[in-house]
Amino acid sequence: LGNPVLEFATDFNSRAEYFWSHGLISDSTYNMFTSVCNYSRYVSEYYRDSVSPSCSKVMSQVSRETSKFVDKYDVTLDVCISSVLSQSMAINPQQVSERVDVCVEDKIVNYLNRKDVQKALHARLVGVRRWTVCSNILDYQLLNLEMPTISIVGSLIKSGVPVLVYSGDQDSVIPLTGSRSLVSRLAKELELETTVPYRVWFEGKQVGGWTQVYGNILSFATIRGASHEAPFSQPERSLMLFKSFLEGKPLPE
């Protein structure tokens, strides 16, 4: 499970600490974001089309300080100021690394809208004028986000299914801090002892991230330098993580 929403309040409210600890918001804004209106409350009100004045004020301040020009899915990397997206000035492309074009998402969109590509992919274009990322054609029941899924993870573990929860450590949307605390809490509820203490793991000669394992069945890991879409921004490290998990082997030390 990569950067998952396991529990609405815990996961969403960890955003404030992440913003503050990474220098994206001030002390005063952090205090408002954790006392006056936290993020889970704002999202809940927003989905119900009933945002309160206090939450509106707090979120305006948070947005002003974090800036439109910081990619919340990968806070350390540049954003793409492209001709395609510049009118909105609200952009969230992903970047593979500093050596890779940050506007790769624009190029993918253009590529997938080529008629020859769509024909080769046997794309069904009924009712679709143009392919876009995260299209609004599908109507998601956003209130379902408030339904906790951590209990389902617990049920899988009880039935003997190994579980790995991992986080890209540059993602502020579903930060690692929320996932880590939820995994730790679940381990305590299931009475799982720590079998691999919190430690670094390696991909090649570089630190790939950090990991901890409970009862040899529940694992938590971070992928260093990874975004919300970890395999996109850190493919080698993501592959090492997945390969080790699928083979039932510990992450390299």
UniProtKB/TrEMBL annotation:
InterPro entries listed in its UniProt record: AB_hydrolase_fold (IPR029058), Peptidase_S10 (IPR001563), Ser_caboxypep_his_AS (IPR033124)
Pfam families linked: Peptidase_S10
First and last residue of the signal peptide: none
Any Gene Ontology CC annotation: vacuole
GO biological process entries: proteolysis
Keywords of the record: Carboxypeptidase, Glycoprotein, Hydrolase, Protease
Annotated TM spans: none
Example of a GO MF term: serine-type carboxypeptidase activity
Membership in a protein family: Belongs to the peptidase S10 family.
Name by which UniProt lists this protein: Serine carboxypeptidase-like 45
